[in-house]
Amino acid sequence: MEARRAHVARGPFHSTPVFVARASGAVVEDVDGNRLLDFASGIAVTNLGHAPEDVVRAIQGQAERFLHTSFNVVPYEGYVALAERLNRLAPGRGPKKTFLANSGAEAVENAVKIARAHTRRQGVVCFDHAFHGRTFMAMSLTSKAVYRHGFAPYCGEVYRTPFPYAYRSPEPDAGAWAFRAFRDLVQNHMGPDNLAAVILEPVLGEGGFVDAPKQFVKDLASFCADHGAVFIADEIQTGFGRTGTLFACEQYGVEPDLVTLAKGLGSGLPISAVTGRAEIMDAPIEGAIGGTYGGNPVACAAALAVLDRFEADGFALVGKAKRLGERIGERLMAWKERHPRIGDVRGLGPMRGIELVKDPSTKEPDKAAAGALARFCMQRGLVILTAGTYGNVIRLLVPLTIEEDELEEGLGVIEAGLDEIGRSA
Ligand SMILES: Cc1ncc(COP(=O)(O)O)c(C=O)c1O
Q1: What pLDDT is stored for residue 318 in this prediction?
Q2: What atom of ligand 1 comes closest to residue 108's alpha carbon?
Q3: What pLDDT, on the 0 to 100 scale, is given for residue 424?
């Protein structure tokens, strides 16, 4: 860690300050031989667990054939095969096309470029508590101060409106309230003919695992359709089984015009995608979007192996994810009954969060309690992450392939940690 401090820029943060030596399934082993159970999955990436054998084999096979030519120089079949698979699997029924990039932020950047090229408009609407990445447009769409502070000026023509955060909504129907605010922004402040795109995480990731109400998402999608704007679902964190369906949009009954994907797609290799309606995806002219590494052949091979796993046995893994979500959800509800510091438990499928507060009647966020719980877990060999604009949410991102006894072990540690912070309240 001393060498890290000497040689690596201060900026990157470590939620679990140990160095990994190897990782497999749900377990990370550090350089001192400590075993840690991983309930963070590298921020929703290793949904199939660490180093799944079939994905590793696909990576090795491709690495032996060729590592890189650049799709912009000499194209290769893996890119096309992955695009075809994503077009078939992504939400939405009509003809679709795909563009591949390296990171989630890059997918978001390109989705906005494609939407602007298609609509020939500029305005992009995003939401309070959103996280879309750290590059300039993605950061401009992101709401939390720590990711933005000191980096201004931000990109122009970005407009922000409230997210329907039920627990903290000023009105009982958070969705109706937030939709009214959105409509007012577009109709009276931006002008609908300046609306190129709306970008939404169906379940806030970094923003605290808040699931948007179904009607709200439907209303947004139909507003976009009525006004010729592009509805972008950012499924970078929610995709690939994380919410108990392959994509969260399936549970919302909406067909986004574009969807951004990353994280679970590559099982650890850097790859991302924009998939969406073919006529929108074809708006940028030849050469207008691309990059040296986007859709790297080794990453494509990994992603194809990931999709094989999801499609195997009639999407059995997605069924397992759904059951996992129900189990975790029940446990969280039981904890909420017993622990006054738990203000809210929520989420979709196995993407679940616990919001900690100083006092349930004031709902004052308790960031210190979330930090203390994360430290308690780490000391007992469990990796968990905090989240939320106020830093007071514990988010659970267990591998979808987790074994029964590992799940119980990890949940037991969190339960003991909640008891501990309860005692010290
Ligand atoms: C919803 C969402 N969008 C975009 C991103 C940015 O992805 P990346 O870190 O790969 O750039 C993230 C990352 O956490 C995310 O959760």
Answers
A1: 98
A2: 4
A3: 76
